[in-house]
Design a protein that fits this description.
Blueprint (H helix, E strand, L loop, with lengths): L1 E2 L1 H6 L5 E5 L3 H5 L7 E2 L16 E5 L5 H11 L4 E4 L2 H12 L6 H10 L3 H14 L8 E5 L4 H16 L5 E8 L4 H13 L4 E5 L2 H5 L6 H19 L4 E3 L4 H15 L8 E3 L7 E3 L7 H10 L21 H20 L3 H8 L10 E4 L2 E4 L4 H7 L1
Parallel strand pairs: 1-5, 2-3, 2-4, 4-5, 6-7, 6-9, 7-8, 9-11
Antiparallel strand pairs: 10-11, 12-13
Helix pairs in contact: 4-8, 11-13, 11-14
Length: about 375
């Protein structure tokens, strides 16, 4: 059984409980106010369920929730699936939202004042410290429609207003085959924030739909290639992606724990396939919790993933990698309880690599081992 957003609003307050069955990473990107997050694999028998109420089950688009609600019904509970899921709720909220004329100005003022220290200053520090923006640059700010890329777009608008030298920005959205609802959400948020997006279309989702092995990896690679190609056609020499500080430290740990390697997500990279193009990450020093605060403080709601084919896709990543990232997030959270500096230490660890104490390392694809010149060093000493 299903219930629409309009029907949900007619229910008596306190007579129902909204259960968000998306995983913790998905729910953290935005949720219906008052919803209780219980991942789908922990739903049945959860002590958090108020079994004396109507249970309204919510996922991204109403697919996984329908199956979950059916199982709860079989168990004797009054459970329904929210038609269209969280996406439908977002669209409905936008349609009813009487946004004030000066909404965008308020968002921009918040960046300059309330979030100056936590967001604006860290953004400009990364731009300066890693030399991400130079005079004459034409930068394609690549936007997925999520909180990170939308914030990045607003920060670039501010940077253009206050920077000492000229550079150009193109706000680029690639539609790889979004559903009409997802595309509308991206367009409405961009309009609300006065971001002049340029949308171009591709058929990537259809191209990878029948790929059985690592379709999400292939999708991500193809999307990156399309972005580079389109940005270059627009005369851009850089593309900007919205990876933040937490992405960096999680990537470092994931590489060590699951990949048996030490590497980091670099603040900028030269493209190996598109000559003259660079990838930059201007949110490199900004914490995800501060991005969430900015989003919630401005009552903004964004999609986390607009994948057409799965309710559980997270940032074009597969189930295995998503589970690993969740584990690493939890590991960092636990370590922080006894060591409040653990996050900063992980981040700085790749800036303080002592090659004299490393067994082996790779540079430009060539492997170097400490035994290569071990005796020679002793002789010189």
């Amino acid at each position: 059984m299903e219930i629409t957003v309009q029907e949900l609003k007619k229910l008596e307050t306190g007579s129902y409980q909204i259960i968000d069955i998306r995983d913790a990473i998905e729910a953290a990107h935005g949720a219906i106010p008052g919803a209780v997050n219980i991942p789908i694999d922990k739903l049945e028998g959860s002590p958090l369920l108020e079994t004396d109420k109507k249970l309204v089950i919510v996922c991204n688009r109403g697919q996984a929730s329908a199956e979950a609600a059916g199982k709860l019904e079989e168990a004797g509970l009054d459970a329904v699936s929210l038609t269209g899921g969280y996406t439908a709720w977002l669209l409905n909220r936008m349609e009813e939202d009487d946004t004030e004329e000066d909404f965008c100005e308020t968002v921009e003022q918040n960046l300059r004042k309330r979030f100056r220290k936590k967001i604006w200053c860290k953004f400009t520090k990364a731009v300066t410290q890693y030399e991400l923006v130079q005079e004459g640059d034409r930068i394609a700010v690549c936007m997925s429609g999520g909180k990170d890329s939308m914030l990045m777009a607003k920060l670039f608008q501010e940077l253009q207003r206050h920077h000492k030298f000229p550079f150009e920005v193109k706000f680029l959205v690639m539609d790889p085959g979004y559903t009409p609802a997802n595309r509308k959400l991206i367009e409405e948020n961009a309009k609300k924030l006065r971001i002049p997006i340029q949308i171009f279309e591709s058929d990537i989702f259809e191209s990878v739909y029948h790929i059985e092995k690592s379709p999400c990896y292939l999708c991500a690679r193809m999307r990156r290639g399309y972005l580079y190609s389109h940005a270059k056609a627009l005369g851009c020499n850089k593309i900007a992606l919205g990876h933040h500080y937490d992405d960096v430290i999680e990537t470092i740990l994931m590489g060590m724990l699951y990949g048996a390697q030490i590497q980091t997500m670099m603040p900028k990279l030269h493209s190996t396939n598109f000559e003259g193009m660079e990838l930059i990450r201007p949110l490199y020093l900004i914490r995800e919790e501060d991005i969430k605060r900015w989003r919630d403080d401005n009552n903004l709601h964004f999609l986390q993933c607009a994948c057409k084919f799965t309710d559980t896709c997270t940032s074009c990543n597969n189930e295995e990698n998503r589970s690993k990232r969740v584990e690493v997030k939890e590991l960092i959270r636990q370590m922080k309880q006894t060591n409040p500096f653990v996050e900063g230490n992980i981040f700085k660890s790749v800036e303080n690599v002592g090659l004299d104490t490393v067994i082996a390392y790779k540079k430009d694809g060539q492997r170097h081992h400490f035994l290569d010149d071990y005796d020679e060093k002793a002789f010189r000493g």
